[in-house]
Amino acid sequence: MRLLSRAVQCAAGQREGSRRHFWGWLNAVFNTVDHDRIKAVGPDRAAAEWLLRCGAKVRFQGFDRWQHDYNGLPTGALGRYKIQSIDATDSCIMYKGFDHLDGLKHVEEIKFIKCSYIEDACLERLSAIESLQESLSRMEVVSCGNVTDKGLVALHRLRNLERLFLSDLPGIRDRQTTVHRLQTALPRLDVSLDSD
């Protein structure tokens, strides 16, 4: 009987591992960058498609409503809709897809909340995008367990960042030094750091 019980537990564990592997593979597929698509529809439309495919939401410039339905993306002339805000709460966006952010010139706000694939390399890549260095003014990083001090310090290149909200980041080891380094590089920056 014990042998049968162990066999059942082993099979159940393999199925769970296979399921996790499948979802990881599918998320990687959703994050694949299609440069031909970006050329065809423009950076804002291609980025919106990527973000919505991964479970995020976008708000376009001049609109109050958040767009969350991939099939409901507005159509129109190339370059008509510009992404102003990104809410990646509970989404599967990952580093592999961050090339979609190149060319976005109107993004003022980004929220990374409960994003299991967001890590230091993502924040470093984000802060290296010149157009976002100019436009991004508000950012939230909450419950992203793979973010450390290194990723947050990289945000110093976002020279127009005015508000940064941080919470539930267990990878942050030296909160005071990290916040001090950011505020030294960005004197206008208001950092809110919730105690975890």
From TrEMBL:
<protein>
    <submittedName>
        <fullName>ATP synthase subunit s, mitochondrial</fullName>
    </submittedName>
</protein>
<dbReference type="InterPro" id="IPR032675">
    <property type="entry name" value="LRR_dom_sf"/>
</dbReference>
